[in-house]
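In response to reviewer comment 3 from the previous cycle, which asked for concrete evidence that the modeling workflow produces usable outputs, we include below a single protein chain processed end to end. The sequence was submitted unchanged, and the resulting structure tokens are shown without manual editing.
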Amino acid sequence: MSWGRVQAVVETAQDGRPSRTIGGKLNRLVLLSVGVALIVGTALSCWGEAQRFLRSKRDVMLATAQVFASASSRAVAGSDRVAVLQAIRAVARVPGLIYVEVRGRDGHPLAQIGSGERLNADLVLAAAEDASPLALLGSRTMTLTVPVIDGGVAVGEIELVGETRGLAGQFWRTMLYAGLSAAAALAIGLLFSVRLQRSITVPLGQLTEAMRRVGRTRDYSVPVEVASDDETGVLAARFNGMMAEIREAVDRLLAREKEIVERLSLAGELRDDQTGQHVLRVSEISRIIATELGLPAAFVDDLCRASPMHDVGKIAIPDSILHKPGPLTPEERRIMEGHARCGYEILKSSSSELVQLAAEIAISHHERWDGAGYPNRLAGEAIPVSGRITAVADVCDALLSERPYKKPWSFERVRDLLRQEAGAHFDPACVEALLARWPELERIYEGRAPVAQAA
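The workflow returned the following structure tokens.
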């Protein structure tokens, strides 16, 4: 597996929470589907109700007109207005009729009864045809005209006008039933949607959280447990497989990086310490201090791997100065102090975060808390915490170890010096952290020959 692929997965894991979740999309899809179904269903129901109302009204009016035409055909043929008026009074009592008019053969009215309300938007019905429900929805009355036949000859016609107010009641009843049906359908749909989205989004949420955790902690060792036999289960299995590949690749890279760092550290240290143990002890003491300070575990690990490179710049210092048993001259001291910047120059251009941390330590571990150190005369918290920790660890081991120009100090003498230099040479917090775990420091030097207090 390529490192580029590893980086791509990690970058994906570092993304924030999605602005839209699958669960939200499923819920919106269900709501949209139910909404569309409601609109379509209600429209079809209203159309059907209007059509049924229209046919029923037309059939009632047609039957009424035909009964009148049959009963009063002779009166109409004879233009007997009194008889025709008596007949239409009976017709006018039919519910829903608001106007009845009978016309003779010449088209002139013989009799009429009712309000005579006629609107421009009236729906005119034909006896043998169905009108459009759309026309009905836009009208307030319905008009039907039927010929009056006597002896096979048309002797006049009857016109009936009915109102359509009943349609509004049927329309709202339809809307009510549709609304209740929609509410029931919506509740059932949401129930199924929640169950469906949980079966999909819970495993995907676990995968998303795992990727976010990987991006945050760089921990590739925790698999995702997804109990599913569908595509999400396959996705989880492949994700776990990919994490295992990434973990193996990262472990190999870290192992190689650690080996390079260790060998680079020894390259500089063996010029000053034939055993190379100084850098290992500095690493252990740095771990004690950083852990007591409560720094993140990942940083503590990186610090312990980077701090051994603090004196890598000594490879540029002549042996005559590096191994001189006596005091250094001012010029020799200036050359010796140059190892901090030299180490920084060697390490600073690396793309490795670990080596960049080592470069930071190399140039800052000889700075002093009071600003009297070198090479940049930094003071206080302007000194990187990695440099402050390594400064204490480096001086502590240097005092406890034998050098060409001195014998090792006792633990008590070193502890007294650390207390004395806290706030001057060293960060007081780093000194307190080491003193709080002093027994751990002493265990690093187990087996060392006892050193007299006055050494």
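The longest helix spans residues 165-217. We consider this sufficient to address the reviewer's concern, and the full set will be provided in the supplementary archive.
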